[in-house]
Amino acid sequence: MTAVPLPVVTERLLLRAWAPGDVDDIHAYRSLDDVTRYLMFDPQPRERIAELVTERAGRTRVEADGDVVHLAVEHEGRVVGDLTLKWSSLENAQAEIGWIFHPDVQGLGFARESAAALVDVAFDLLGAHRVWAQLDPRNHRSARLAAALGMRQEAHLREESWFRGEWGDLAIWALLAHERP
């Protein structure tokens, strides 16, 4: 495989590797209950974000199953969200996409713009056959984003995992290369 060619530039955004100066911006949204409500982690303290930035800063290559590319989404010099692309199977050309954004930018189309650019990278530059996302079906914003990317819901797994003190459902959304809008 290969490195993701960075930065990825969209009309309004810059997708790039995480950098040490991003800690405060990333902490500003990853520390919020509303942001982590449907995620597999609780609000994160600044110290944990600093560790994550150090761990993820160079993760921009796909070379083996399980490799994860971590990208900061920057708007006007501020990180407003982050994206992940996890290569779940090189042999089967399967990649999982994920997104997290600051509530201040919700509704501005930044998530769609940046995620669509990463989907394009996955298909056009990395040779993905299928890009998929997993999300809590109660997360209506993420479901709308998946649909806006051209994904279809493939599965709704009932009580799939123990999540925040209760059994939680899981929705799987996906898009095949030849189905792209």
UniProtKB/TrEMBL annotation:
Pfam families attached to this UniProt entry: Acetyltransf_3
Keywords tagged on the record: Acyltransferase, Transferase
A molecular function GO annotation: acyltransferase activity
Name of the protein described by the UniProt record: GNAT family N-acetyltransferase
Top-level taxon of origin: Bacteria
PANTHER family the UniProt entry points to: GNAT FAMILY, PUTATIVE (AFU_ORTHOLOGUE AFUA_3G00765)-RELATED-RELATED (PTHR43792), N-ACETYLTRANSFERASE DOMAIN-CONTAINING PROTEIN (PTHR43792:SF1)
Limits of the N-acetyltransferase domain: 13-179
InterPro entries, per database record: Acyl_CoA_acyltransferase, GNAT_dom, N-acetyltransferase
CDD domains named among the record's database cross-references: NAT_SF
EC number: 2.3.-.-
